[in-house]
Write a structure and sequence with these properties.
Layout lengths: L5 E3 L10 E3 L13 H26 L8 H13 L3 E4 L8 E6 L5 E7 L28 H22 L4 E7 L7 H7 L8 E8 L7 E2 L2 E10 L3 E2 L10 H15 L8 E8 L6 E2 L2 E10 L2 H22 L2 E10 L6 H14 L2 E2 L2 H11 L21 E2 L6 H5 L4 E7 L10 H7 L2 H23 L1 H15 L20 H4 L1
Parallel strand pairs: 1-15, 5-6, 5-7, 7-17, 8-16
Antiparallel strand pairs: 1-2, 3-4, 4-6, 9-13, 9-14, 10-12, 11-13
């Protein structure tokens, strides 16, 4: 049985096609050597240079949540060119889309494609801190790679379905505003995944793994305080400081930390605190997140936070209004799908560095504290299905709507943290494109195995139903009626 080697990142340009470098892998997925798998391999080989170009185009023009007009259109065009039927503007989100291919007679396998960037993360693709002049946002979570890699996988799967005359449908869901906007929740609420059999996804990272883990559910939003302005020295008695309301809330929230369940996370940032010390501010705002593995715990703790906000307003003579921006469930792991992904990822192998990549990675690691060896990029991590991640993602709500599993690949230099300038730099470098290619190959390989073995799809559904529970009824943590399409508008400006 032929084993696929590690993917080596391109060294000629940032968007060069990934080359091949021999790296041992543990084992290969079933049927990897047959003719059908060659169709899959050849499709990704042919598209890899274009995938890298697409990823870099999204990196060069980073767009924030719900504002991903160029990014969404580019991904849609790549799928339409490959024969996918595309529907845009779904679930009340102009940049959301679903693209489908296949005959619709077999299992429906969905791939997720994220694309939004983060504010304040501008960075050139160099191994030193170097913001790009005139640009604020940056792909600090690698969603440019996420979107491009998922499109590459979907195109290969669609071609495999056609050339092998297999029954089945592959879909790509373009999912905006993962970073705090909870875009996928609106898709789930609209029933977009009701007829989906399996959902596969991936995420950029500093290593390769198919380990399945629960994440943290969260609720996020902004408390807007309104007071009365006055001269802080001449007539302080006439003023009622909105900032006092914010600070009173923050003080009470910090006191709450001692009296919340273990694993609860509470964090905030003051987004409006006034403009001048000698003016009593009549408006102020603070943006909060509350997280915990259990959605109901998040709901309870946030209700206590809202009560504290009312108390803060009452005590400071101000008024408060809450505007929710996000709310997501924790991810529901699926071991059946996780093992399929693990076998596929091991068959593909990790990322091997060429000489130029090694120089870039070595220089970048000098900015990190205690980084692991660069060889980690070529390794596949140990598989497990019972881990606990302390991140949050709107993939969580999807995982309670349909059997869902994902992988992470080494798009970043080992030791790199998400939401860092180092992640932005690697996401715009050939190292990032090589990691996205690993993801595309692994997702495509896993999908074809699921199409070939209906028992795996049934097993994933049975596990999903068991973990979710017979009495489960979906009650979203996100309660606002419509997506906050302007929640990043100020950041974009």
């Amino acid at each position: 049985m032929r084993m696929m080697p590690a993917i080596r990142s391109g060294v000629a340009t940032l968007v060069a096609a990934a080359c091949i470098a021999a790296v041992p892998v543990a084992h290969a997925a079933p049927s990897d050597g047959d003719a059908a798998r060659e169709v899959l391999r050849a499709s990704i080989d042919a598209y890899a240079p274009r995938m890298a170009e697409v990823a870099h185009a999204l990196w060069e023009q980073p767009e924030l949540g719900y504002l991903e007009t160029h990014s969404s259109r580019l991904l849609q065009d790549e799928l339409a060119e490959a024969g996918f039927e595309v529907r845009a503007g779904i679930a009340g989100m102009p940049t959301a889309f679903v693209a489908s291919a296949g005959n619709g007679k077999g299992p429906v396998i969905a791939l997720l494609a994220e694309m939004d960037a983060l504010p304040g993360m501008s960075q050139a693709a160099v191994p030193r801190r170097a913001p790009i002049a005139g640009q604020d946002a940056g792909q600090a979570c690698g969603h440019n790679l996420f979107g491009a890699g998922s499109v590459a996988a979907a195109r290969a799967i669609a071609q495999w379905l056609r050339e092998t005359d297999r029954d089945g449908e592959v879909r790509v869901y373009g999912t905006p505003a993962e970073e705090g906007g909870s875009g996928k929740v609106y898709l789930v609420r609209a029933g977009a995944f009701d007829d989906v059999d399996v959902v596969l996804h991936w995420h950029p990272g500093d290593g390769n793994s198919a380990a399945q883990a629960r994440t943290l559910a969260n609720i996020s939003g902004t408390f807007h305080f309104t007071g009365v302005a006055s001269h802080a020295a001449i007539a302080p008695e006439r003023g009622r400081s909105a900032l006092d309301g914010v600070e009173a809330l923050d003080f009470m929230a910090n006191m709450m930390r001692e009296h919340v369940p273990q694993q609860t996370r509470i964090h905030y940032v003051i987004t409006d605190g006034g403009d001048a010390p000698n003016v009593v501010p009549d408006s102020a705002a603070v943006y909060y997140y509350v997280r915990h593995p259990e959605p109901e715990v998040v709901r309870d703790v946030f209700a206590r936070l809202q009560a504290a906000a009312e108390g803060a307003a009452q005590g400071t003579g101000t008024r408060v209004a809450f505007e929710q921006s996000g709310g997501v469930f924790s991810v529901l792991p699926n071991d059946t799908l996780g093992r399929v992904l693990d076998a596929s990822l091991r068959a593909v192998g990790g990322v091997g560095y060429g000489a130029d990549d090694t120089r870039f990675a070595t220089a970048l690691q000098e900015t990190l504290a205690s980084p692991p060896p660069l060889a980690k990029a070529a390794e596949i991590g140990r598989y497990s299905a019972d881990g606990q991640s302390f991140a949050s993602t709107d993939v969580g709500d999807v995982s309670w709507a349909a059997p869902t599993a994902g992988i992470g690949t080494a798009t970043w230099v080992p030791g790199t943290a998400a939401h860092s300038w180092q992640a932005v730099a690697a996401s715009g470098h050939a190292i990032g494109a090589a990691g996205a290619e690993v993801a595309a190959r692994a997702l495509a390989l896993a999908a074809t195995r699921l199409y070939e073995d209906p028992a795996l799809v049934r097993g994933a559904r049975e596990e999903f139903e068991r973990r979710r529970g017979a009495d489960f009824s979906y009650r979203p943590l996100l309660e606002r009626a419509a997506p906050p399409l302007d929640y990043r508008a100020t950041d974009q400006d």
